[in-house]
Design a protein that fits this description.
alpha+beta; two-stranded antiparallel ribbon; ATP-binding; ATP binding; 4 strands; ribose-phosphate diphosphokinase; kinase activity
Length: 71
C-alpha cells in the first residue's frame, strides 16, 4: 500500500489500566487499526477498544478494525 505506520503510545499502569496516546493527528483521516486476538486475548481486545475510542475522540473520519485470527 505504500503507507507508513502511525505513531501511538500504549502504556499499562500498575493497577492494570491502559493508557493510549496518539502521537500524530488523525483528524479527518481514515484510520485502520490492526490488532490480533492472540494470547493474552483480553488485553489485546481491550487495547483495540481503547485505541478505537482514542481515534474517535481525536475526530478520525472513519475507524476500521482489522482483527486477524490465528487459530
Amino acid at each position: 500500500m505504500g503507507l507508513n505506520l502511525g505513531k501511538i503510545r500504549i502504556k499499562w499502569f500498575a493497577d492494570g489500566e491502559i493508557y493510549v496516546q496518539l502521537q500524530e493527528s488523525v483528524r479527518g483521516c481514515d484510520v485502520y487499526l490492526i490488532q490480533p486476538t492472540s494470547p493474552p486475548a483480553n488485553e489485546n481486545i481491550m487495547e483495540l477498544l481503547v485505541m478505537i475510542d482514542a481515534c474517535r475522540r481525536a475526530s478520525a473520519k472513519t475507524v476500521t478494525a482489522v482483527i486477524p485470527y490465528f487459530g
